[in-house]
């Protein structure tokens, strides 16, 4: 009997660590281990354009990059990787299931023929930062099997499409993210750097500077995909494109994880940090309620660096309170972000041809 074929479509080459790509890689590994024939198609149509290379040179360069990516995640060798240029009948392989994973892939995937597989749409955020809300919600009505990662996204998708989506909450792998036993420094704060406005790093940095006025030896352990911004001060340590192991170490050395996101479906780094024993100080954005509340995290209004700094200082100056919040958060995150539950749900999604 032939194996069930599943094809995921991702933008670009996943050169830097992102939560959305990490989930696709995690599900791909699991499905491959269960005997599925898994392919990831990296849409490289817009890759290397800034270098003004001829099309054939961009294609060669993109294929070479895909061959060696991702270098920040251990992707199972049984997962096939294809470099494609545009999502269409020619570039996409025949499959039993095909999965759009971002708003720009939804319409071309929905337009594919039946030979490319049953259409699914993995919705990990309300992606209005690059297009209008109306255009985003149009993609929920394309007739695909919509899969969402959070309750608030489920509400939006059901309201827009008239059909209840499948909910598969993003999982955290407890074999990857756990306290390492390294010395946890009371005045160190872990933070994700991302240049996208919806990630709120400017608010996070403002909160760090305010907190440092009361905690002068505060140090920030910052990680992100881009190279280190040259304007970061010396008290900010920076790790570019951190591996899973490096992230685990960063979280385990830090007392608090700071998140100032504005609009995000889930914010995967928050529960990762909680799994590793960090206390969470975050904005009260929609996705945070999938794994935290006022009992197990300190939450502030969006776009309020002063409130974030007050919560930071409260925990940095009271290590026992930080440990109490961290313990509650660890328990809650492990309950809510179950890896076996999510993997089983995703496996069932593709169980039938």
Please tell me about this protein's structure.
- Helices cover 35% and strands 20% of the residues.
- The strands form two sheets. A seven-stranded parallel sheet has the order 3-2-1-4-5-6-7, sandwiched between helices. The chain has a six-stranded parallel sheet with strand order 10-9-8-11-12-13, sandwiched between helices.
- The model has no long low-confidence stretch (mean pLDDT 93).
- The protein folds into two domains: 5-171 and 338-349, 3-Layer(aba) Sandwich (Rossmann fold), CATH 3.40.50; 185-336, Rossmann fold, CATH 3.40.50.
- The chain is globular, with a radius of gyration of 21 Å.
- α6 (201-214) packs across α9 and α8 (269-275) crosses α10 (319-336).
- The chain has 353 residues and is an alpha/beta fold.
- α4 (133-138) links the parallel β5 (118-123) and β6 (145-148).
- It starts with a strand and ends with a helix.
- It has helices spanning 19-33, 55-67, 103-110, 133-138, 151-161, 201-214, 244-253, 269-275, 305-316, 319-336, 339-349; strands at 5-11, 37-43, 80-84, 97-100, 118-123, 145-148, 166-167, 185-193, 219-224, 236-240, 254-259, 279-283, 298-300.
- It is built from eleven helices and 13 strands.
- The longest helix is centred in the last third of the chain and has 18 residues, at 319-336.
- The relative contact order is 0.12.
